[in-house]
Design a protein that fits this description.
- By secondary structure, the protein is mainly alpha-helical.
- Helices cover 67% and strands 6% of the residues.
- The protein has 19 helices and six strands.
- The strands form three sheets. A two-stranded antiparallel sheet has the order 1-2.
């Protein structure tokens, strides 16, 4: 049996590792259930309004909203605007949401087109005051010009945020030119699913940190490292085996949990909803030319890179520190510190620190996913690089650095 197999079995038999694996799997199912449970639909039957939740609500919604699915053509958007303005004139702007409009009518007539109305408000935002448009003031022609206005809105946003960096503006326009128009919309997977996916990735990174932290420091603490170093493979080869075993457990657990989560969500909400353009649920000016399904894959892959970089960094810390408590404390600090960066550092400095930290892409507030639908750029001279690209670049660069540093550190460690 190889040294790697022996070390893998040893780590898997550790009580704390087993508990963390079971905890992660249970949490995955809990996080999978919550977005589904939040969905509700109200319909009228025998003169009464009946509200259902979960899978039943999703099923009814898919049937009732079928005529609104597919491409969001300018004609469909113009019809949606006309319908919404009619309801607004009948019930008032606030009445649609505060109870004047029957809930069954809201779910049947307003809810299926509300994302389209939201995007209309967004693209006609006043560039001077940055206030969204009043829907009652928009015309049919405004709706028919929806896609032309998307380019105008993107230009306004970039000119406001990146006026001093033409490279950033050109990069955004270049990416946006590949966005497929008309947008595609199928009800289903939405922002709530991505919020919980983001939280799941964050928790899995913390679990990975807790699994990896004792790999070397536990043996320093117990003194067993002295004995292991006297064996034939007690330095470099043992360090490689420990590193590979720890990474195998953490990465396998991450892949298992994220795949299970996405399978449950996409099956429940409908795989067809994965065809929805990223611009529909988030922002009409999101300049990445992908759909919801592709976004899921990219977010999970980016999370895997961040996890890989993080646990490699913690392996290095474990090879340096003589107690499990010290390694675990620093590992947890590393996981949570990105949550506070944006509030304690200036924006540009905060983004640079976010990129350098291996956990910078997995925070609850400034994660890779939220940057994916934002317009933040970092600038090196006249060159501008979109922040999600920088997060990926730093993760890829740091992984081999931490692995080599870990093996070298363990091989030369002295207590």
């Amino acid at each position: 049996m190889s040294l790697y197999s022996v070390e893998l079995k040893r780590q898997l038999k550790t009580k704390s590792v087993r508990i963390l694996i079971v905890f992660s799997i249970i949490l995955t199912f809990a996080f999978s259930y919550l977005p589904i449970s939040y969905v509700e639909y109200t319909y009228q039957a025998n003169g009464e309004e009946i509200t259902v939740n979960g899978l039943e609500a999703i099923s009814i919604r898919q049937q009732e909203w079928e005529s609104y699915t597919g491409q969001m053509t300018p004609d469909k958007i113009a019809l949606a605007l006309s319908q919404y303005q009619e309801y607004e004139s009948q019930y008032g702007e606030d009445g649609i949401f505060t109870g004047s409009m029957p809930r069954s009518e809201y779910y049947q007539k307003v809810a299926p087109i509300y994302r389209w109305i939201t995007r209309l408000r967004e693209i006609y935002t006043n560039p001077q005051t940055n206030t969204t448009a009043n829907i009652s003031e928009l015309t049919e022609q405004d709706a028919l010009n929806f896609y032309e206005q998307c380019y105008t809105r993107l230009n306004n946003v970039m000119e406001t945020e990146q006026a001093a960096h033409p490279s950033a503006i050109n990069q955004a326009k270049s990416l946006y030119s590949h966005v497929e128009m008309p947008f595609t919309y199928y009800p289903g997977v939405d922002g709530t699913v991505f919020d919980y996916l983001n939280m799941l990735i964050f928790v899995l990174v913390i679990v990975g940190a807790l699994i990896i932290a004792p790999v070397f420091s536990n043996e320093y603490q117990t003194g067993s490292d002295h004995i292991l170093r006297c064996t034939k493979y007690g330095t470099n080869k043992l360090a490689v085996a420990k590193t590979k075993a720890g990474l195998t457990i953490v990465i396998s657990l991450y892949i298992l949990c994220t795949v299970v989560f996405l399978l449950i969500e996409n099956t429940a909400f409908g795989w067809e909803s994965c065809k929805t353009s990223l611009q529909v649920p988030y922002s009409a000016t999101s300049f990445l030319p992908i759909n919801i399904g592709q976004t899921e894959i990219i977010v999970v892959a980016a999370g895997l890179l961040a996890l890989f970089s993080t646990v490699c960094c913690i392996l290095y810390l474990s090879s340096k520190m003589n107690t499990v408590y010290a390694t675990t404390s620093v590992a947890l600090l590393l996981c949570f510190i990105p949550m506070f960066i944006s509030s304690i550092l200036p924006q540009i400095m905060g983004m640079w620190v976010q990129c350098v930290l291996p956990t910078g892409g997995v925070g609850l507030l400034d994660s890779f996913f939220y940057e994916l639908v934002d317009t933040n750029f970092l600038h090196i001279g006249s060159v501008s690089i979109w922040l999600p690209f920088m997060l990926l670049i730093f993760s890829i660069i740091e992984i081999p650095i931490w692995i080599i540093a870990t093996i070298h550190s363990y091989a030369n460690h002295q207590i």
